[in-house]
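Comment thread on ticket #2218

A.B. wrote:
> Attaching the input chain for the structure job we discussed in standup.
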Amino acid sequence: MTDNVFAKIVAGEIPARKIYENEHVIAIMDLSQVTKGHTLVITKKQVRNIFDYDEELASNVFAAIPKIAKAIKNHNPEVKGLNILMNNEAVASQTVFHSHIHLLPRYGENDGFGLKWEDHSSDYTSEELDDIKANLIKALEGVK
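C.D. wrote:
> Ran it. Output below, let me know if you need it in another format.
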């Protein structure tokens, strides 16, 4: 089923700047090039996002990431670091609902990409954090 742009790329129905492929993923240059070398690692299996992964798919997909990341860093001596980003659902900025992971090479503080991290630790009491921890542990028991 090829109902989205990434499924069509995987199926070879539309062109892309492919840099890597194995039996589980295809890696392509992102059209937006948020930073130079911005690459997408797309699952060949059509799943919406991380919530649809099982352990085998996760193992197969994430096994390819270091190789592609090292190639991105090694191809350009100006690359100082790399963000690995996966948006899952619209509230988290996912716009194509076919699993994909962004590899964003970083060149310095003003390279066109940034993340905002706020410290909310003072918003929670120790008891509230313990409750969150207990609820997460309980939820993990039901996850396969």
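A.B. wrote:
> Thanks. Noting for the ticket: Residues 5-114 form a domain with the HIT family, subunit A fold (CATH 3.30.428.10).
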